[in-house]
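Whether sequence alone determines local backbone shape is best considered at the level of individual chains. For completeness, the protein is quoted in full, as a sequence line and a line of structure tokens:
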Amino acid sequence: MMKKLKEALSLKFYLKKLLELKDRPDETAKGLALGVFVGFLPINGFQVLVAVTIAAVTRVSKIAAAIGTHVTNPWTTIPVLILDYYVGCLLLNKKACIPHVDFSSFSSILSSGKEIFIPMFIGGVFLGVIFSILSYFGVKKLLEREVNVVKNYVKNIKEKTAD
């Protein structure tokens, strides 16, 4: 049981799933990049829904988009959100600190949330753009290489059967 769980959460598992997709390498890479971008946004709980919806509208791989959102998972969510916040504060030239939350009224709780959410969102967009670009080119190259291996294999089999 533990071995299957560990396997399902590994990078190798997700790469295998990407290689099994029947989409063109470009569609799969775009879908994954979209998912990675959305995965860096502080909209936990809605990331897969948002990524798959955008993937359906833009006609890229929905499965790859869902896989891409897994840059944030139960083990990485907190570190990614903290990184989003600090990068956002850096980009906004704002001192990063945990704001004092006044729980006396709902509006004060919301305004304290804005102090955290806005830098976190801006940092998430910034990091999402960087990592989605990197994942797009990396996965596209990997998938194209895999397609070429399969094409060469099929070509060799056809040549052998033709002889």
User: Anything to note?
Assistant: The radius of gyration is 20 Å.
